[in-house]
Specification:
This protein has about 350 residues and is an alpha+beta fold. The protein is built from twelve helices and 15 strands. The protein folds into three domains: about 120 residues, Rossmann fold, CATH 3.40.50; about 150 residues, ATP-grasp fold, B domain (D-amino Acid Aminotransferase, Chain A, domain 1), CATH 3.30.470; about 60 residues, ATP-grasp fold, A domain (Dna Ligase, domain 1), CATH 3.30.1490.20.
Length: about 350
């Protein structure tokens, strides 16, 4: 049987979300087909790698606020024989392929992908360049615009220009309200809605404490949807399909971190859209996936205004819990989370 490592955790602000995804993948993977090893990267960047492929994950429910993640990792270390837990442990993996269940930061921006590539280890998801481009919202927007996709009007700011007073906030020619986002963030971590120029400076000052580049985008009011793309090999032939989109109805002001991960939203799959608009959304998701050079799978988020889908972002490592959007969409066409995991693993051996 193939030996598969499931990489979860990481040093990014999405550490908790990655732990939840990794635990879901570990529980759902077909262990009659694969020998499985969960590998946890701590917030400090240490790799916790069990010996062999008989390790177990604690049967705990991880708290949505992430309060018991450290205890979970400690218990994992106690119940398994750990081979390496200091520094980068990629040389100790002993895997045929790695399932990347990381989100954000070095797990999704091409860094981990480059590390695994340099050791010749196949992995799920997009390669280095596509991962880096998708994570950089400004550059991704330029690419989307070049291929005819619609994006909200945006402005990018850099910390060095802000600190040296080169930025005149009165010259930011965007219609309020606007969204202020970390350039490389995901899962809506660090996203703020700003109603007027007076509030902007404080939001920027706080956000620049933790990041060097920021993107400001005009709010577009409309229907929020998300559409995943899944690549699947059948008899050696590659099929790239857009899944039925999900309609997102947040209970909060917008689909922020809390709405995404604490149930503060309603999600309807398939989305309640006219057939022709559904097709436009699916074709736009496919075009976004292919224009960035994504591989294996992705998920693109949109706002539909006047029947036009505006891209918010493309995620190259979307969440994979039972309640995540991609599994919801796959379930609507008869594919289970176990099916998705198998499809993604098999794609790593067709590079």
């Amino acid at each position: 049987m193939r030996k598969i490592g499931i990489l979860m955790g990481g040093t990014s602000s999405e550490h908790f979300i990655s732990m939840v995804s990794g635990k879901a993948v570990f529980n759902a993977i077909d262990k009659s087909k694969y020998r499985v090893k969960p590998i946890i990267i701590t917030r400090e960047g240490n790799w916790i790698i069990p010996e062999g492929f008989d390790s177990v994950l604690p049967d705990w429910k991880l708290d949505p606020e992430g309060s018991n993640v450290s205890e979970f990792i400690t218990e994992f270390s106690n119940v398994n024989k750990i081979k390496s837990h200091k520094g980068i442990g990629v040389a100790y993996l002993d895997c045929d392929a790695v399932f990347i269940a990381l989100h954000g930061g070095e797990g999704e921006d091409g860094t981990t992908q480059g590390l695994l590539s340099s050791f010749g280890i196949p992995y799920t998801g997009s390669a280095v360049l596509a991962s880096a481009l998708a994570m950089d919202k400004e550059r991704a927007n330029y690419i989307f615009s070049q291929v005819g996709l619609h994006v909200p009007k945006f402005v990018s700011l850099e910390k060095k220009d802000y600190d040296s007073k080169k930025v005149n906030l009165n010259s930011v020619l965007l219609k309020y309200p606007i969204f202020v986002k970390p350039m490389f963030g995901g899962s809506s971590v660090g996203v703020s809605k700003v109603e007027n120029p007076t509030s902007l400076e404080e939001v920027l000052r706080n956000l620049f404490d933790s990041t060097d580049r920021i993107i400001l985008q005009e709010q577009i009011k409309g229907t929020e949807v998300s559409c995943s793309v899944l690549e699947e090999y059948k008899n050696g032939d590659l099929f790239i399909n857009a899944l039925p989109p999900t309609e997102i109805i947040p209970e909060t002001d917008f689909f922020d971190y809390k709405a995404k991960y604490t149930g503060k939203s309603r999600e309807i799959t398939p989305a309640r859209l006219p057939h022709e608009i559904t097709k436009v959304v699916q074709n736009s998701a496919l075009k976004a996936h292919q224009s960035l050079g994504c591989k294996s799978y992705s998920r693109t988020d949109f706002i539909i205004y006047n029947d036009i889908p505006y891209i918010l972002e493309t995620n190259t490592l979307p969440g994979l819990t039972e309640g995540s959007l991609l599994p919801q969409q796959a379930k609507s066409i008869g594919k289970s989370l176990t099916d998705i995991i198998n499809i993604l693993i098999q794609s790593t051996f067709h590079t």
